[in-house]
Design brief:
alpha/beta, eight-stranded parallel barrel
Length: 317
């Protein structure tokens, strides 16, 4: 079922979460273990991330370390299919601009259509690891809105090769990302919301937000989106803090603000086990308020961990 239909038909706040494909060479069982831990909370759907090339340093012929691009987490589409087949839960594989050209995207859409997967979350993806800038692959997309448009054209049976006779139409439901504290490359929140509206106008059916730790930020973001004419569901994304180093890592990597009250609670912790507990309780409080105020769903970023998400879900859903 399409995510927008799941959201529309539900009368209560839904539970969903995001998974990372296992590292290359690792077993799929770790992913299944996470789902087994969380399936009791009846997830409405499960997202599977997509990753561009990473950079590792390997010795050249002279023995000197040089940067080499490798794809460390392949398998998004096959993992989505395996999850759907094994659990019967709707899946939302991500598609990204970074590292893929338009033909790569079209091939992925064909695979997903053949597999009967109806949902996609469309994202630009991270900047290049070497240059620090986002650089599309030759023949690829610079912005997520361009990828949304390609999926919508595919939905209408418009392929890159215009000479295809009687092309098959598809029916993908497209989700896109939103940034309550703005995308790090946007000059301000108003411009960022304008870009978000372009993605919705191009065909996105819903928005899922970047993580945030202050619900007031989310509520203000939704208000600004509505004022800008964005009327699709906006799903809050939540990530429980689980280690002290995340006080610096999360703001640096995800451009998010951590409230001083949470910082002080984490600073008082003697070890990361206590931080883990603090993170759970903070996420529980966030989730209960979001649910009470009618959030269509709450989307959890697991980052490969299920225990803290399960503890939050047990108190909220």
């Amino acid at each position: 079922m399409k995510v927008i239909d799941i959201l529309t038909k539900s009368r209560s706040t839904l539970f969903s979460f995001e998974l990372l494909p296992p590292l290359k060479g690792h077993t799929i069982d770790t992913v299944f273990d996470t789902i087994d831990r969380l399936k009791e909370f009846s997830p409405a759907y499960i997202n599977i991330t997509h990753h561009r090339e990473d950079v590792v340093y390997m010795p050249n012929t002279a023995g000197e370390p040089v940067p080499v691009k490798v794809r460390r987490r392949p398998g998004t589409i096959s993992l989505a299919a395996a999850i759907h087949q094994r659990y019967g839960i709707d899946v939302v594989p991500h598609l990204i601009c970074g590292g893929f050209d338009a033909h790569d995207i079209e091939d992925a859409l064909i695979d997903l259509d053949f597999l009967g997967i109806q949902n996609i979350l469309v994202l630009r993806g991270d900047a290049d690891k070497i240059s620090g800038r986002f650089e599309p692959k030759r023949g690829g997309h610079q912005h997520a809105v361009e990828l949304v448009r390609q999926v919508q054209e595919f939905n209408r049976g418009i392929y890159l090769e215009k000479l295809i006779e009687n092309p098959k139409e598809s029916d993908f439901c497209i989700g896109v990302g939103g940034y309550p504290e703005k995308h790090p490359e946007a000059p301000n929140i108003d411009v960022d919301i304008r870009y978000l509206k372009e993605k919705v106008d191009a065909g996105a059916s819903y928005v899922v937000t970047q993580m945030f730790f202050d619900n007031a930020v989310y509520f203000k973001f939704v208000e600004r989106c509505r004022e800008a004419g964005i009327d699709v569901p906006i799903i809050p994304g939540i990530k429980p803090i689980s280690a002290k180093e995340q006080l610096t890592n999360l703001p640096r990597v995800f451009n998010v603000n951590i409230p001083q009250a949470l910082v002080q609670e984490v600073d008082r912790c003697a070890d990361n086990r206590q931080v883990f507990d603090v993170g759970v309780e903070w996420a529980v409080a966030q989730s209960k308020e979001l649910k009470a105020k009618g959030a269509p769903a709450i989307h959890f970023y697991t980052m490969g961990r299920a225990e803290n998400i399960a503890r939050v879900a047990a108190k909220v859903f």
